[in-house]
Amino acid sequence: MSSIDIIGAVSIITAGITIAIGSIGPAIGEGMALARALGAIAQQPDEANTITRTLFVGLAMVESTAIYCLVISVILIFANPFWNYVLTH
């Protein structure tokens, strides 16, 4: 295998691992947040609007972690700086 093949394989494997691990935490966190919000709405139906608004803000913050992992994976696959280094040397 040449250097470019190794860098390509490692980049793809690392991108896959990044998405796999980086999406597990937010998925579990979002599930727990939704379960607790539904429990809170069941106990206090009058506060449903406030709970829902706070839930959406919290879910957006949790989801940003998965989005950062997606960005890193896309950079590893499409804009890997190591490929340019290998091609020039």
Describe the structure.
- The protein is mostly helical and 89 residues long.
- 90% of the residues lie in helices and 0% in strands.
- The chain is built from 3 helices and no strands.
- The model has no long low-confidence stretch (mean pLDDT 89).
Number of strands: 0
Q: Assign the structural class, choosing from mainly alpha, mainly beta, alpha/beta, alpha+beta, or little secondary structure.
A: mainly alpha
Separation of the first and last Cα atoms: 16 Å
- Rg calculated over all Cα atoms: 20 Å
| Low-pLDDT segments, ≥5 res | none
> In oligomeric terms, what are we looking at?
single chain
Helical fraction: over 70%
Q: What characterizes the major β-sheet? A: none
Helix and strand string, N-terminal first?
Answer: HHH
Mean pLDDT: 89
> Globular, elongated, flat, extended or rod-shaped: what is the shape?
rod-shaped
Percentage beta strand: under 5%
Number of helices: 3
Features:
89 residues; mainly alpha; 90% helix
Show the helix and strand layout.
Layout (H helix, E strand, L loop, with lengths): L2 H41 L4 H31 L2 H8 L1
Provide a concise account of the structure shown:
The chain has 89 residues and is mainly alpha-helical.
